[in-house]
Write a structure and sequence with these properties.
Blueprint (H helix, E strand, L loop, with lengths): L23 H6 L27 H9 L3 E10 L8 E9 L5 E9 L4 H6 L8 E5 L4 H9 L3 E4 L4 E5 L2 E5 L22 H12 L8 H8 L3 H14 L2 E4 L2 E4 L2 H16 L4 E6 L10 H6 L3 E3 H8 L8 E5 L4 H6 L3 E2 L6 E5 L14 H10 L3 H13 L1 H8 L1
Parallel strand pairs: 3-4, 4-5, 12-14
Antiparallel strand pairs: 1-2, 2-3, 5-6, 6-7, 8-9, 10-13, 10-14, 11-12
């Protein structure tokens, strides 16, 4: 300043070692830094711990401690301009002390893996805010690269817009309470339940089937079918009309199923990994594949829906490792991950099948790959495939 001494700058609290950045220059000057020890909300399967407002009370506390005013605008809100019937769990408006605001569409996920962080669909508007149990550094990095803000139960957080920045990293995963039941074994989104959901999504008319017939198609027990049907009915994914069950909110159910498939079922299906010197062999092998009961999924299956796609891998579904096929087309067993993935076929179709798997599984395979290119392919076939379009309209 001319003609005198410069004013002393405001004292800004030093950031914690695990805190990168803070709530903008003005918030830092007011003493709003990173919070070390704030208890967080507990999440189970898809936000069953929400309070009456649809918003975890301790999540509000967390954001308020960071200097935000939190307003809940609505729950299970419809997102305009996205896929039909696309919804977010909660709509919230965050306001800083300086008056900067942002409206988020909050997505609550019980678990988030690196593959899912790359693949999962988030509505583009309003900006997404992910609430989840824990995000390791690689997973959080993928979310930041996609421009997805987040808060987890360990205290890791990233929120950024205009001159506002919260970036807290390196918090450790909370201990899991002893005796807590795993979600993999039972329920609609456990391993067995996901098989039933696949059949319902691929052949919606099976919603009206007797339990025994649906169990046969899914390869699960009658008890699992009853549990899944009850849960779907309670959640509004099934309704009765004319004495029959019918599927509802198909777009939302497909999103949830494909996410859970990536986390829970995908890795359990591996039969073997192989390498092919010429990956195009399968295009002329339709009769051989059909004769052996082998079906094409993944990128290769997607390329049969959209010829513009050029697959770099082949996913095959079979009851067992197709030894004759491997020998005939000279596939070599891969030490790690090959370009030919053989997986267990876990369903019995209620109608004659083609040589490609139903498109909901192709879509889930693309998302589960963790490859951004395959995720883009998934978005593309969801727009043009008749079966997926029908689900989105349900």
């Amino acid at each position: 300043m001319l003609g005198g001494r410069a004013p002393k700058p405001p004292t800004v609290p030093a950031p914690r070692p695990d805190c990168v950045g803070a709530l903008g220059v003005d918030q830092l000057a007011r003493g709003v830094g990173c919070v070390q020890n704030v208890s967080m909300f507990n999440l189970n399967e898809h936000a069953e711990s929400l309070n009456a407002t649809g918003w975890p009370a301790e999540a509000r506390l967390r954001l308020e401690e960071l200097g935000f005013r939190v307003e809940v605008l609505g729950t299970e809100a419809r997102v305009p301009g996205d896929v039909p019937d696309s919804r977010v769990d909660v709509m919230v408006r965050l306001t800083t002390k300086s008056g900067a605001t942002r409206t988020y569409g909050v997505e609550i996920k019980r678990r988030m893996t690196a593959e899912l962080a790359t693949a999962v669909h988030f509505p583009s508007a309003p900006p997404p805010l992910l609430l989840t149990t824990y995000l390791g550094d690689p997973v959080a990095g993928r979310l930041r690269a996609r421009g997805i803000d987040y808060v987890d139960t360990a205290g890791n957080a990233h929120l950024a817009w205009d001159d506002v920045l919260v970036d807290i990293r390196g918090r450790r995963k909370p201990a899991t309470p002893a005796g807590r039941a795993s979600s993999r074994g039972a329920g609609a989104f456990g391993r067995a339940g996901l098989r039933v959901l696949f059949v319902l999504l691929s052949w919606p008319e099976t919603a009206a089937y007797p339990y025994r017939r649906l169990a046969e198609a899914s390869g699960v027990s009658l008890g699992t079918v009853k549990t899944v049907i009850d849960e779907l009915g309670d959640a509004g994914y099934l309704y009765g009309r004319g004495g029959e069950r019918r599927l509802a909110r198909g777009a939302e159910l497909l999103d949830r199923w494909s996410e859970a498939y990536s986390i829970t079922l995908d890795s359990a299906l591996t039969l073997g990994e192989f390498d092919a010197a010429d990956l195009s062999w399968w295009r002329d092998a339709e009769s051989d594949l059909l004769a052996l009961g082998v079906q094409v999924g993944g990128e290769a299956g997607a390329s049969l829906i959209d010829p513009h796609l050029r697959p770099s891998s082949l996913t095959l579904y079979a009851d067992r490792v197709p030894v004759r096929l491997i020998s005939r087309y000279r596939l070599a067993r891969a030490e790690n991950k090959g370009n030919v993935h053989v997986r267990t076929k876990f369903w019995q179709a209620p109608e004659p099948e083609s040589w490609i798997v139903p498109s909901p599984l192709i879509y889930a395979d693309l998302l589960a790959s963790g490859d951004p290119r395959q995720r883009d392919h998934g978005d593309r076939i969801r727009r043009i495939d008749a079966r997926l379009e029908r689900i989105d309209r349900t």
